[in-house]
Amino acid sequence: MLKKDNFEHRNKTNQDLINRLYFMKQINIKWHNAVSNVGRIMNPRLFIIVLCVLLLTSFAYGQTIKSKTAPEFSLKDINGNKVTLKENYGEGPVYISFWATWCKPCREELKIIQELYKKYEECGFKVLAVNTEGPKASGKIKSFVKSNGWTFNILIDNDGEVFRRKYKGFAVPYTVMTDPEGNIIFSTVGFKPGDEKHVEELILDHISPTTCAINETETEE
Amino acid sequence: MKKYIAIFTGGLICLLFVAEYCPAQDDYWSVSAANWMQYWYFEDSTSNHDAREDSLDNRFIVDFNLGDFYTGMWMRLLQLNRPDESSEKITQRYFGWRQDGFNIHVGNFYQVFDKGLTLNTFLDDAVYYDNNLDGVRASGLFDKYEFDVLSARGIEATNGERDYVFRGARGAVRPVEHTAIGVSYVRFKRNDFMNFNRSLNSNITGINSRFMIGPIDLYGEYAVRRGAKPDPFSEGNGDGTYLSGSLVFEKISIFSEYKNIINLVYPNPQNRFNAPPPVSHSGRSLTDLAAVKGERGYQAGALLSPTYDLNFDFSYSEAFSRNAPVDYYLAEKYGGVRWSITSDLVINYNWDRIDYTIEDEIENYFDVYYYLRYDLTLSLAAYTRRFIPEGGEDYHENYLTLGFGLANKFQLSLGGSTSNRDTNPQQDPKKLAFAELTVRFPNHELVIFNGGERGGLICSSGICQTRPTFQGTRIVLFSRF
User: Which of A73, A152, B145, B181 has a beta carbon 3.0–4.6 Å from A127's, enabling a disulfide?
Assistant: First the structure.
């Protein structure tokens, strides 16, 4: 009797499971069909033509993404302290750079930015260099930062949620610069030598002349 | 058909209109988006016939924020000119709420618990690796403590379905200055294919600690895996250790890492949801390269900076397989120098030798940047790679690239590579040349590549993939709205 009950119970459980799986599969098929209909009729060439026409229109009228607020984040720095983006606002522009230890252009960029940081730190210029490598660089990162002489804040994006999701990063170096209120004033992928001149102009535009004597003296020079 | 084109085109026009002409936010809400499109027209080197085909990969991300609430999705259109491999789908969608370090997130996400011994999910485009989770997560990051609690599903690599179930939590406190202590736990559940009514559970528990004072920084993590055997040939129980330490002084920094794991990674070595850092300069690990279930290894290195403009970088690493039918060995010696000779001239040189049971590899890399003007640069990159397969003939590859860049406007690169291989001219031709133009607009970046790009082993995050040689045209357009 006990065996029979067990058998019936197991049979019923199996049937329930099969029904549930079948139901989920049906939902999945319907969803897949609905989504794939768009792609089925969009062959690659047609898709490119449509996208290019739209983007060319966008190039013609587009401007730098101004008046957009940089997405807020909280991360830990290399010493394990919590750092938020908004606590860096108020005094001067904030330079957010996403980087990796293996990335040579990132190293060149941050070397150059270190010079600007030294020059304008007292004027409220802030640099947040966000490492995007997760745990794989954890053993080396502190030594790497010190040997390059970087004195600004180094943050760790352990799972890539800030770089990938909040800032929609695809490649490093990826830079976003904000004004003292947090509005994006500059963003670029792949820092190139010479970009620092543009960055310096932006720093000078957004630091307060009353709090920063260097502004006038440096400009005169 | 026309209906769908109209819907799609209309949607894009609306989005671009909103992005370009409307403020896209006020004090309370904002919309942002990014699109990455890659189009290839190429010679299919993987097939034996001389076929040319085109493919498209488009990824679109959009986010909407309203006060402390947010929502967004990732869409991907992949057209490989092989219907069975093409797809159009919403790859990720999510919504959540965040305030003062506290966050509740529903939908797709990535999560790493500490150094990854108990849970390590991430996206790495270099090796096309994406093991995102889909579920619910609550997390908090505060000055003295932090935590993450999650319940989610993970993708089973062979069928692409979310068959794996994860329940997990982690927490860390800083009870006194200079010290942090943390614990983590993950319950990993999968179906037993031998018995439909049964599921297999693995419980992974980890403990970690960090100590920092002055120039010293020490970290240690230990994890234990207990659970059912996934199959008669596997072990359900295992453990792992990861240690790291660094000593940082003014002119010299020393770092070291150690790992020792056995049967810790799940569900299998090459498609896994947990792993310690790779502990090698090039990001290679035996767990992935040889698909072994256990390995022991270390890395030690030093970084010297006698002056601000001169940096030296050395490291040495070794790894040995554990309990594998064949003993595998991986060692890497690396040395590099970066020297800013003048404010206009910067050079980089590095040498890297990898000794692996199956094939050794030696790389010599040199590059130089010269500023013609503050915004005008000339660059040259040259490197060689020599491969020494076990029991086979050596072969080598030489690369040279010349670059000319006008900052913030464009970059032109001309380059080529040669190889002494003549086994398969289609998959690995002796000579390849290319031209690449990058044009930068305020919110867009356009890259046009034409020519040949040599394939080979690409490694990142402890994962390696072999890429075929590419010959053809590639257009990449990255836009932010």
Answer: A152
Q: How far is A165 from chain B (nearest CA, A)?
A: 8
Residue A2 CB partners (closer than 8 Å, separation 6+): none
Cα(A156)–Cα(A132) distance, integer angstroms:
7
The stretch A100-118 carries a mean pLDDT of 90
Taking Cα atoms as reference points, which of B446, B423, B422 lies closest to residue B436?
A: B446
Quick one: pLDDT at residue A23?
47
CB contact under 8 A, B4 and A47: no
Which of A139, A119, A125, A127 minimizes the C-alpha distance to A90?
A125
Of A67-71, A197-201, B178-182, B222-226, the range with the lowest mean pLDDT is A67-71
Residue type, B330: L
Residue B373: which H helix or E strand, with range?
A: strand B359-373
Find the closest chain B residue to A10 by CA distance. B197
B303 chain-A contacts, CB cut-off 8 A: 143-144, 146-147
B87 compared with B287, residue with greater pLDDT: B287
Please tell me the predicted confidence (pLDDT) of residue A28: 46
Lookup result for tokens 């990132």: A106
CA gyration radius, chain B: 25
Q: What angle do CA B411, B364, B256 make, to 5 degrees?
A: 105
pLDDT digits (tens, 9 = 90+) for A155-191: 999 888 899 888 988 888 899 999 999 888 888 887 7
